[in-house]
Write a structure and sequence with these properties.
alpha+beta, Alpha-Beta Plaits, Arc Repressor Mutant, subunit A, 3 domains, 5-stranded mixed beta sheet, 3-stranded antiparallel beta sheet, 13% strand, elongated
Length: 319
């Protein structure tokens, strides 16, 4: 068997493993459908086990997949291909071709969107070093952000992996970064969804002036849902809350920071005081002021939830 046939045979084996389409280079007898493809510039006949309309559709699918492997045609490099997949170009078949071409196993995965504060090339080089020896992938999406695809599982949650990247990057290079983490997907073919979520998490964290460096998409699902609501409806919702004094709180930087830290500290007065380096009495005074202005005692969970929703509505209406 020559080199071209070796490559073709290997890819057919991978197609069988992933799709169940049993295609061979030679006839094996029995019920099979012969069909032709052009492989590396030469017409080649393949044999698909099965017959009928379903077999004909499967043969078309196999031919489509193999078309992307013609080594005599120019093809994008690995990074360019990965960028396209993360941006949702080419769909699941493009993702399948990528895995096969670079001998990567399909597995649950998630995406990370990382924005270094400076020196993106150095940040990318460091991250690639951290991923060395794993199937994980990293690529610069533009001059400001890096995408990471995480396959391997070492007992870390997606959020913990994001924290690892931020901490390692700062300790080794002095580069700080903001990170968005998408949800875990069952297959690499869905990775564009996770990457879009990661980008959204970074954007939402900026919109809400959220503290911290790592932001999970799950944190901002409510924000994302409200963002799709027409602006006039958002104004209507804001009016229904009857919190006319909320604007006074949101426009006061110190009061807004106090409220945000209190919510982030799980409504814990002592923890909030420590984090803000603020005397407990001062904090209580500010919480009382928020209650007078909005009618919401955010020391109560239900009122804290309402205050969070009002905050989101206000930010969306201001954006």
């Amino acid at each position: 068997m020559n080199t071209a046939q070796d490559r073709l045979s290997s890819i057919l084996s991978e197609i069988l493993r992933r799709t169940g389409a049993d295609v061979s280079l030679t006839s094996r007898g029995g019920e099979e459908l012969p069909f032709s493809i052009v492989w590396e510039g030469e017409e080649t006949t393949l044999y698909l086990a099965g017959f009928g309309e379903h077999a004909e559709e499967t043969a078309k699918l196999v031919a489509f997949l193999l078309e992307g492997y013609d080594m005599r045609q120019a093809s994008p490099d690995k990074r360019e291909s990965l960028r396209a997949i993360l941006l949702g170009e080419g769909g699941q078949w493009q993702a399948f071709r990528f895995l096969t071409k670079y001998n990567l196993a399909d597995a649950p995965c998630f995406a990370v969107d990382l924005l270094p504060s400076k020196n993106l090339p150095a940040a990318l080089a460091h991250i690639e070093g951290c991923l060395d020896g794993t199937p994980d992938l990293a690529v610069s999406m533009d001059d400001t952000r890096i995408a990471v695809v995480r396959f391997s599982d070492e007992g870390q949650t997606p959020y913990e992996f994001g924290q690892f990247l931020v901490q390692s990057l700062y300790e080794e290079t002095g580069i700080r970064a903001r990170v968005g983490v998408g949800c875990a997907m069952n297959t690499f073919g869905e990775i564009a969804i996770s990457y879009n979520q990661a980008v959204t998490a970074v954007r939402m964290s900026g919109l809400l002036n959220a503290k911290g460096e790592v932001h999970s998409y799950r944190e901002y699902l409510l924000v994302r849902m409200l963002e799709d609501v027409p602006r006039l409806r958002l104004k209507d919702y804001m009016e229904q809350f009857c919190a006319s004094g909320a604007e006074e709180i949101f426009e006061d930087e110190d009061m807004a920071e106090t409220a945000e830290e209190f919510l982030e500290s799980s409504l814990n007065v002592s923890e909030t005081s420590r984090n803000l380096y603020m005397h407990r009495n001062t904090l209580m005074y500010r919480l009382d002021k928020i209650e007078r202005a909005t009618g919401l005692n955010i020391r109560k969970f239900s009122d804290a939830v309402t205050f969070r929703v009002i905050t989101i509505l206000y930010k969306l209406l201001q954006s």
